[in-house]
Amino acid sequence: MIFWCDKCNVPVFDRQLHKQICNGNLTKISEGTICNPVFKQERKLLSKIAGEDLENKSIWYLGATNYYIDGQLVRISYKDWYKEKKYLEFAEELRDNIEIERDYSPYMGIVEANKRYLQGLVLDAEKYVMETAEKYKNSYRTSISFSGGKDSTVVSRLVRDTLQDNKIIHFFGDTTLEFPETYDYVNTKFREENPEIFVLPSEPENDFFQLCKVFGPPSQYERWCCTIFKTSSINKELDYMPKNSLTFLGIRHSESLARKKYEKTQKHSKISSQINAMPIIEWTDYDVWLYILYKNLLVNDCYQLGYKRVGCWCCPNNSDWSMMLTAIYHPEDMQRWKEMIYDFAAKTGKRDLDDYYEEGRWRVRRGASGLEEKNVTIMDTVCNLSDTARNIIAGRKLNRDVIELFKPFGDLKIQDKKDETYIEVYDKDKSKEYRKCFSLIITFGTNVLKVLPEERIDVTNLVNRLKCQLRKYQFCIRCSACDSVCPYGAIDTIHGAYTIDESKCQHCKACIAKFYNGCIICDKVAGKKGKDDLL
User: What is the value of pTM for the model shown?
Assistant: First the structure.
């Protein structure tokens, strides 16, 4: 709960601790976990929406449309204002007169009123950082995942203060879709304040807008973008580290339902060779802002504009509030996004293009949703070489590069004969004994892969797995999604072709069926989720 102290005139987060230092009356103002300072630039916008001057008032944001203004709980609804495009009347005025507050003194009363509460938070987080770093110091190199958002900024300071090390590598996962303020913060302001820190950007090779033509725009149900534009590129950067990485992240349970399930330390993550450590995973929004004010941390200017979260500017999970802010402060980006959505809607036969964009229906589209569906069916037939042998018939002629896709199954022993190539695959079976599992016979230039399983092998499972690999071979556009799913960093699709490093591959087979039917293209355009004409 959040309380208001009539003596301190600030929000209070722990009533019992506050009573030890103050005899003011406490009134409950919220049952939520959000209590953010509202800076001057956002107060200008709120003034336009509310129709009254709020610039010089004390305002705390409490979530949704709730604000605490000069001791009063007030609702400022922006939905109709946004839908009616009234923001366009003030957009230029707001853009041309941006004021950024670096002096936090007007907000520091909240730190003094909650100091004992904050000290307990910080002590627990520092203890976790110290113990975790000590546990993994011999085999792992410490790094920080740095997005340019408030949570990663807090974790950066927390970890550096605890370990007394200002030279910890910060990995910046540049999706190419960050806000201009984020690039300015990461590349200039943060570096100037922390000159000893080495910030390593990881920029993907793919063009986001080009891939939108293949997969359709990302939606809340079709979020192919994170896999390709964040996980994969960071994965590649970590490959160059001399040790495995103990990476501290600013992930918090309160951010989403999915993240509520995260453990504080994750030994198995989406990034290869990495242990994830999350020292503020149980912190609330108001905990984060309390720490920012306490440490006088310079943060991304987006928060002064009014953004509550900072990520990709066109993320389907962004609120209407965020979309409105982007339309105000970055109209060129929003125009480009609008044109892409309209183009997608027109090509996929949507009924009302304006409605599809304005009502945000693109955010909730599922499956192929009008895209040209791929026929992902790969046939298999009986092969006369043995009772269990099968012929798998691909949709693309098989050349020698298809062998790369067989490496996850085990060690390959390849023998070329006059017309055919024989591949014996060896791996540990369920009894942990290392022996031959199956053989493959290929005549390059044809569509047929002959499979000869050993007697103990589950034929159906093996054939289905091989089909997954052949779908990758058939549809691969080197989007780098496969790179991100290998827990050992063995897959590389970026540098010219689909390759698997045998020295890294552990034959865990995690990559084979990670995506529906084996390939992310099949996942997004196979039409498995059906179509909804309204989307």
Answer: 0.91
